[in-house]
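Sequence in, structure out.
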Amino acid sequence: MRQYLDDARRALRIDPDADEIVRDLESAIGDRLSTRTGSVDDSVTGAQMAAILSELGPVSPARPAPPSAERRSRGRFWCRIKEGSWFGGICLGVAAYGEFRVDWVRTVVLLLTLVSGGLLGVVYLVLLLVLPVVPTVTDYERQRDAPRYP
C-alpha cells in the first residue's frame, strides 16, 4: 500500500491538488478495507490488499503534463538593467548575465574601451539600442528563472 501511495504522489507531482487526491485515495482504501473485513480485529492479507489496489487501478494525472513539465527555466539572457546603472545599464546586465561583480565589469569595459581606441564604445552604443531593458536585477532573476514554454 505504501508503494502504491508513493507511486501516486510521484504521478501527481505537478498537480496542485496532489495532496488532496492522495488523501482521497487513502480514504477509498480504508473504506474498501472496512467492507472486506468483518470486524476491527480481522487482519488484512496481502492478497486482499492487492485486490483492493488493483480495483483502484494505477493513478495518473487528470490532464497530461506538457512536455516542458520539468520546468525548464528561460535561462540567462542579455539585457540592460536600469536599477543602479551609470550609463544605460549594459555593464549591470553583463554582470547579471555572467554573475560577476558589476564594479569588475565596469573596470574591464573601461580598460578595453581605452585599449581598443574607442571601438568598444561604439559597440556599447549599439548595445544600448538593441538590448531589452529590465527594471531591476530582481526582475532579471525572476525572468531568468521563470518557466519557458515552447
